[in-house]
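Ticket opened by: R.M.
Priority: normal
Category: complex prediction / small molecule

The reporter submitted a protein together with S-adenosylmethionine and asked that the result be attached to this ticket for the collaborator who will pick it up next week. Submitted input follows.
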Amino acid sequence: MATVPVLLADGTRRLRAPAEARTLLAHALGVEPARLALVHEVPPDAAGAYAALVERRAAGEPVQYLTGRAWFRTVEVGVGPGVFIPRPETELMTGWAIDRLAALPGDPVVVELCAGSGAISAAIAAERPGCRQYAVELSPIAARVAEQNLAGSGVALVEGDMAEALGELDGTVDLVIANPPYIPLEAWEQVAVDVRTHEPEVALFSGADGLDALRVVARVAKRLLRPGGFVCAEHAEVQGGSVVDVFAAAGGYSQVADHPDLNDRPRYVTAVRAGKLAG
Ligand SMILES: C[S@@+](CC[C@H](N)C(=O)[O-])C[C@H]1O[C@@H](n2cnc3c(N)ncnc32)[C@H](O)[C@@H]1O
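Result attached by the on-call engineer:
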């Protein structure tokens, strides 16, 4: 029978990625990667399943689609073909939002636009319990997955176009967060082959300059937010200046500012809804 070290060495040689080999072997065995050291021999069916997973990964399928799971901040969510895989770049913006919400009393109202798997909303629910949360997603496939990921979290999932969503909340929302599609259509060739082959186009591309969805986010957040409410939205690293212009041009915002990600690249814009505070 094959052993874990031998199979890991085989997978690492094929993938040139030891962490991916570990993840796939653990998945084939049905154990957490940290417990691989406790496995002495790998049964033939698990070794065969692992070999097949390694070949699919070598052919470009994302690891997260092969295991069906992805980590985001403090939560693990289900993902699969047709659903955007949550990225580490988005974690910092989500932390910014959680910090704003932690400073608000009571049960703030939070709307996530372009929710995908629901990872951002799930992290907010886990890390700042007590918010009244809504998550909006256009793709029926992603919406089904988000519904499963958010089951029991109290987050209400709305399937539909963010442009028209949640009119009943207009002027009452404390925080809007979005990681919308933002790659320019003309940049298709620059997108990693694995990404453009396997992840859904509706999650990636947004018009000639990549800013179409961000313009909608600026407009919808302005409609939803109460005076003093916060918005944050992710963008591509080359869009730091243009996204600030989009929010400034939308009107109705103050303190429009851009922020870097963990690699110090421009990554998300934040703004405060201007207007007279009640009371
Ligand atoms: C970049 S993915 C982000 C997913 C998730 N928020 C995350 O960070 O992992 C963008 C998501 O926006 C959704 N989307 C695109 N256009 C939309 C629209 N007009 N209204 C609502 N969702 C939309 C896509 O289907 C996709 O799931």
